[in-house]
Amino acid sequence: MDMHYVDYINILPIQNLGKEIIIEKKIEFSPHASAKKVYELVKDRLLHVNDWYKIGGFSRFQIINANGVSVNRRIINGDYLRIDVPGPGSKIGRGYDWVRVEELIEINEEDINSIGFRVRPAHYPFGEKNNIAHFFSSKTTSCFIITRNEKSILITIIDRNIIPNSDIISWTDKLRHRFITLVYVFSKLQWRKLANGLIADKL
To answer: Are 153 and 199 in contact (CB under 8 A)?
Structure first.
């Protein structure tokens, strides 16, 4: 079966606004390779978001729980991700960009294993909550999905409904906002590097 665009966990929103980014990395295993074992290893890498910078990426991601505490564990629903993007940080976000995990789903069947989570730009969670602390608007989502289909593993990273954040109020954030086209290109490079890093040395 071709896994291209198949959303087994039904986590992808409809694309109807702005731009879309789709990054895919598909690996076919020989009959003697254990795709299930590799799936579990890659899944662990995916969920340990704090370590993404080690395997592929330019930004640093830190899991912050609902109580505002930095934690070092697998990501769960309701967590915030504090993102340290190279260059000037967001004033609204106290120097960082912020997203929140709004859904995490996994299915396990005989021939199909799939796990993914969806994040959405968020306000700075531990202060005033009037403005989104991110380059993109709250309509934008990012989904990170790993699927094993028999002897194949597919890593899919999809940003949908990419729209610039209109909540920008400070002059420094407005300056960052002027480079939104570069941010779009940066996101594609970031996700491609991450997808390659998730599966690296597991072939």
So the answer is: yes
